[in-house]
Amino acid sequence: MKRIFAILLYLSMILSFSAMAFAETTMEKINRTGVLTIGTRTGVQGFAFINSKNEWSGFSIDLVEQAIAPEISKKLGKAIKVEKKESTPPTRIPLLTSNAVDLIAETMTDTRSRRESVDFSLTYFVTGAQFLVKKGSPIKGGQDIAGKRIAALKGSTSARIIREKYSSAQLLEVPDQTAAFQALTQGQVDAYTSDGTYLAGLIGKAQNPGDWLIAGDFYTYEPYGMAMRRNESDFRELVNNGLMEAIESGKYFELYEKWFGPKGEVPYPLTAENKRFLSLQVVPK
After folding, report:
1. For position 275, which CATH number holds?
2. Which among 255, 259, 132 has a CA at the least distance from the CA of 199?
3. pLDDT category, 16, cuts 50, 70, 90?
């Protein structure tokens, strides 16, 4: 019996080492399939959403298709296709770690705790959390939410900060923005808190935009990065090179104007401070 057990253990070890030896890197997978699969959103106006023609659209998707995918194609010496899968705050890291997607390209904040599970690109967008309220609301910022019912996306940075720093508020975690805005319009909550870009997008597509206000200064710092599997420096370098080239060439700012300029999907002006921050991330060639 001991001999049989030893043989089985040996075979198990051989199979484990074989699996490790033949595990594909992200670049090997893309080279084999000709496809870069990204996890992105379906309902974040301006960033990543399904438009009226049932097409994936948005700033982060454009960055992948016009800046990152060309960099990968150049490295591989062949054209690659970009495929999209829906990701949400609770599912995006599992999608990456299970190899279902290769890159998360949406409104994902780069945090130290998330870096324990995934790697991030350079910061490609900066915003912060605020509050969406009905016009005339007494909520002017975080100092006013004690005892108030506050909606936040499940698994989001905003939900965590409200729980940790504003424990006197009544936090309601919701699955998506539609549920959050519905709860707000129906009076089930007093405010919805999320990144300012999300809130501006909701106002932009509301039936009566004038009924809503974004309240308060940023109470969080939300540096968005594109997430990928850990310890794949070759892939991360290509993602970063694509983003740096877009910033340096001006392509980034053209796309920003398209989606967030005065005539864009979600007007959200780029501050001089943030523009300088983005530019300072571009290292010399």
Report:
1. 3.40.190.10
2. 132
3. very low
Domain shared by 212 and 242, yes or no: no
> At residue 65, what is the residue type?
E
97, 34: one domain: yes
- Tens of pLDDT, residue by residue over 86-131, are 999 899 999 999 999 999 999 999 999 999 999 999 999 999 999 9
Domain that holds residue 40: 24-126+223-280
**HSE (CB half, 13 Å, CA atoms) of 181?**
20
Whole-structure pTM value: 0.79
Q: Residue 99: which H helix or E strand, with range? A: none
Tell me how far apart the alpha carbons of residues 230 and 235 are, in angstroms, rounded to a whole number.
Answer: 10
Task: Say how many C-beta atoms besides its own lie within 10 A of residue 250's C-beta.
Answer: 9
Q: Is 200 exposed, middle or buried (0-12, 13-18, 19+ CB in 10 A)?
A: buried
Task: Take residue 98 and report the two structure tokens written for it.
Answer: 């299970």
